[in-house]
Amino acid sequence: MSTAEPLLEIKNLCVDYGLGDQAVTAVRDVTLTLNRGEVLGLAGESGSGKSTLAYGVTRLLPPPGVVSAGSVIYHPRSGPSVDLLGMTPAQLRAFRWAETSIVFQGAMNSLNPVHKVATQLTDVIKAHEPKLGAAARVARARQLLTMVGIAADRMDSYPHQLSGGMRQRVMIGMALALEPQLVIMDEPTTALDVVMQRQILGQLVELRERLGFSVLFITHDLSLLVEFTDRIAIMYGGQIVEQAPSAEIYATPLHPYSDGLLHSFPALRGPRRELAGIPGSPPDLRGMPPGCPFHPRCRRALEQCETQPPVLARPAGVGGNRTVSCWLHPASATIGHAMNGDQILGDPVGSH
C-alpha cells in the first residue's frame, strides 16, 4: 500500500545530551525518509539511538536532550510542508495526535490507573475536537475499542482489569483516535509474549491497510521487522548503517552488524543454524572509535575500517533501493539517486 510519495523526511538530524564540550551526541547526522502508507522498521541494540531519534523528531526529548542540527519535514494531506523543529508550542499541540501519534516504550504502563478506559479515550478526542458532543465522543471510543479487537463493554474497565495485550491495544486505539497519518511505535510489544506480539502486529498491519497511515516501528527485535515491515533501517552508534527492503535485508544483509543481528535469533523455518551473536559491547557515545564505529566488534574489519569512516551510499554491483555504510561494499561510482532520493550515489548521505 506504500507509495513513493514522502510523508516524513528527516534530514541530517543530530541530537545531543548536554551542552558545550560536555555534550554527548546520541544521534549523528541521520537522514531518513518515510513514505505514505509505509511501515518502516528501525532496528538496533539498546543505546543505538532509536528512541532518541523518535523523540527528537516529535520534539519530546526530555532534558538535557536537544536537537542540535537538521530538519524534520512533514508533508500533510493538504497544505504546505512544515518543519516540525520550527513549530511553536501551540502548533505542536494541534499537530500531535491529529497528524502524528506515538505509542511509547512500556505502553502497557502508560494508561492512568485511576481512570476508566472510556475517560482516557474520550479525553484525547475532546482535547482536539471540543465541538464534538459527549455522546459522539463515547461512540467514537467504542468504535476504537472494537477496531483494535476489544469488546465495547470494556469501556468501563480500569487498566488493572485488562490483560497486558488488551492494555496495549487500548494504547494503539488511542493513537488512532484522530486518524493520524503517522504512528510512531517505540518497542510497543517488548513486555508481551510472542503469540500476543504477532496478534497485535498482525492487527496493526490490517489497520494500516484499511486506514492508510504510515508507521515508524522501533525495536531491537529484527525478526519482528522482517515479518511486518516494508523497509528496514539499521542503527548503530547513533548512525544509520544500512537501509533496504525487508525481504532483501533478510536474504542478503550487507553490513556485518545487520548480519549479526539476524543471526542473534533462531529461524522459525528451514534448516537449523548456529546463533553467532555479536561480540563485544556497543560503543561509548562519549568516545566513539575512529573510522567505522563497528570495527572493534567486526569479524570482517579491514585495515581502513580502523581510521576511515565509511559513507552511507548505494554499494557498487548491488541492485535495488538499498544503502550501506561499510568498506566491504564501496559506494557505486554510477551517478544516480540513492534510496528515496536522499543522496547522489557515491555522495555521503547527510554530508550536505
Can you give a write-up of this model?
With 352 residues, the chain is an alpha/beta fold. The protein has a 7-stranded mixed β-sheet with strand order 6-7-8-3-9-10-11, with helices on both faces. A 4-stranded antiparallel β-sheet has the order 2-1-4-5, covered by helices on one side. Helix 3 crosses helix 4 and helix 4 (134-147) packs across helix 5 (164-175). The chain is globular, with a radius of gyration of 21 Å. The longest helix has 18 residues, at 194-211. Mean pLDDT is 87; it is low at 333-352. Helix 6 (194-211) links the parallel strand 7 and strand 8. Helix content is 26%, strand content 20%. It has a domain at 100-179. 41% of the residues are buried.
Outline of this structure?
The protein is an alpha/beta fold. 26% of the residues lie in helices and 20% in strands. The chain has a domain at 100-179.
